[in-house]
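Folding Problem: From Residues to Backbone Shape
Fields: amino acid sequence; protein backbone structure tokens
RECORD BEGINS BELOW THIS LINE
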Amino acid sequence: MTSSDKSSDTRRTQLYKGVLELALLSLLDEEPQYGLRILDRLREGAGLDLSEGTLYPLLHRLNKAGLILSEWRHEADASHPRKYYALTAIGQAELNAQRHDWLTLTQNLNAFLLRRSS
């Protein structure tokens, strides 16, 4: 791996850290979901290349902060119980605030970047 590749990976990691919480809260706004499903949906739907080692500490932190709650469920088609995560009312308010901030930031930054490239 070259120095340029490492720099690109570091930059990408920092960008992911900034948007992962927003993407996760947005996903849980749809419906409660279990960990591996969340991981798959964030990878496939949001294009975030993240690991379980990144996701589960974030879920724990958000749960501790009261933004999400968790519960064990045993479904008939599953061989073992799964821990489901759902958005709380506080989490919904935080999602709304983060979504507003993100949309404002990206709108302004896109306008700036497009102006600078022409």
The helical segments are 3-30, 35-44, 52-64, 89-117. Residues 89-117 form the longest helix (29 residues). The first strand starts at residue 33 and ends at 34.
